[in-house]
Amino acid sequence: MKKSFALFFIFILSLFYSQNLISYVNPLVGTKNMGHTFPGAAAPFGMVQLSPETNQVPYAKDGKYNPETYQYCSGYQYKDQTIFGFSHTHFSGVGHSDLGDFLVMPTVGKLNLEPGEANQPKSGYHSQFSHQTEKAEPGYYSVFLDDYGIKAELTASERVGFHQYIFPKSTDSHIILDLMSNIYNYDDKNVWTFVRVENNQTVIGYRETTGWARTRKVYFAMKFSKPFKSYGRKRYEKVEYNGFYRKFNENENFPEFAGRKIRAYFDFDTEENEKILVKFALSSVSTEGALKNLDTEIPHWDFNKVKAETQSKWENELSKIKVETINNEDKKVFYTSLYHTMLSPVIYQDVDGKYLGLDQNIHEAKNFTNYTIYSLWDTYRALHPLYNLIQPKRNNDFVKSMLAHYNESVHKALPIWSHYSNENWCMIGYHAVSVLADAIAKGTTDVDINQALEAMQNSSNLKYYDGIGEYLKYGYVPEDKSNSSVSKTLEYAYDDWCIAQVAKKTGKTDVQTEYLKRSENYKNVYDAKTGFMRPKLSDGTFKAEFDPMDTHGQGFIEGNAYNYGLYVPQNIPKMIEMMGGKNKFSKHLDGIFDTEIADKYIEKNEDITRDGIIGNYVHGNEPGHHIPYLYNWTNDAWKTQEKVRMVLRKMYHDREDGLCGNDDAGQMSAWYIFSAIGFYPVLPGSNEYAIGSPLVKSAIVDLGNGKKLIIETKNQSDKNIYVKKIMVNGKIIKNHILNYEEIKNGGKILFEMSNSH
User: Fold this and answer.
1) What pLDDT, on the 0 to 100 scale, is given for residue 2?
2) Single pTM value for the model
3) Cα 102 from chain centroid?
4) Which single residue of 241, 344, 440, 564 has CA 20 to 30 Å from 682?
């Protein structure tokens, strides 16, 4: 009877929450001056991410790095007034970039294949636009191209971008395919491009680029709803030898063309308000695979049907957490954040399961779906733990994709930062081991644990990677041997703890003992005299010049000794003891939030701005995301509640500059989701979450196993930020720790809130 009532209660709550959740998402939310999030059209976790490029900023000017290019990591900046076209692959708010493949731009009038300069209207094929005519929703984007009188609409399935252009009457309408355009572009980025015009409606080909991904090949198939009357291309690089293709005029109506730098065009006659649709499919395998993806996913020309289907997929994904909030803005921030967490990783296989592997051979994913884009230094912290909570089956595919990467790697290493059959080696740590360990700890993966342990061990012993050889020799990374040495030592020590947890599950006590010992290496870079983690040299002495506020040359990366120096999640009590005990440590945390960091310490960091800083706490970057929760291990747990609520309020909102730093493939947003529902994974790889201060009034969390977790808050308000009492399934929680075992089968968490601690 009780079970029946509980199910009925959940049913009634679900009806209460059953709203159009995509209406609460604003895909235009991003950052003010950094890599913007992806605002265009995509299916959840889709390979195709079809989005506008609002400028074409080169990676370098006069042979030097161009800082402006950093603003275009995702191709889009809200402050811009121009659109150069719509390309099919993007990252969402990362701090470095690539992609921007296959830019399509409709135009009217005299053909111009030059993109032009954004600050010079009509200097090229780009167009002015206004945000008044721009509309962005999950799975849909539209805008009016002022220079041409064309309305552009975009939607997408997982592997196919779907364009709909409404033209004015003209005998001189064009659709340009710019095969030179890239994000983080430079002269030699395009390695080769090949195009075949199969008939007057179908075009196939591929492009290979180099860059952040050293060897990246993407195949495409492009179909028009209407036959084009003529077509052509322009090749821009100097051609010293062209074989016997010199017999032909390859510039006009010649059915195949190839080169490093090519722009193609397709000509049409159009009536007033005539729609020309373009389906554009991608594949990592072949043009045959691209065509198969196209014909399987969108075999028709019904744009609105695809839009509706994709938005239904988004509604389903967003429904994994249904919340009621104090106000409407909070709900918009919540669902925009949840949307951000589902833009990557992306599906990286054709509909038949084939994909291009890290070894550049064709593989077939069996019993899993292969994914790519793993920004693991960022996402192991909260994003993958969030997937374990609400996307366990998909996260199992992520784990298997990482093991496929390992099997295809000549280094026999798990991914560090991988995308499109490439390892970028970006950032530090070997954090795929954290993702594997967290999934194994929570029982959400069915991989062979012994194979996973082998992959984790091999990754941790790759001596020629980023100071690991020195780490194994000295028990820390010496700053005179490898820079960012303290950050590396701390991250490696945490990862080693993760390996020990998996070794424990396999019964390999010798491996467990070895890695538990390695996990204590953080002690080797702690300087008791200064009270900070500090760079140490290979002779065993600490680096003489040391400023704990600074990042550069101080042994840290994207952080300083105040925030990154507190990264010992595997043994927080021991760290606190080392640093003087609970009361002193609590005051140290206070100082981080209360002490204003000087401009000189952040002016060199293009990914850190004042928008993401509270005192010296840098929420706009990842290394300190656990810091507000550390008070839980002192005598002042109420300060965690205070600081978490403060960060939720100050660092996120629902406007176009609503993120305080790069979303970094969803990590920034995952922090918000966890914190808003009341707990956070300070130690991925364990079964524990730290309690914070929930922002929602209530939530229903679909755990992906047929179970639902109900979260309710009593006396919730902007003033009642302190947690007076927590009950989990009727049991009072007193230690500010929530255990996964207590919620994995669903149930209820009740937070009783108060305005005093």
Assistant:
1) 46
2) 0.97
3) 21
4) 344
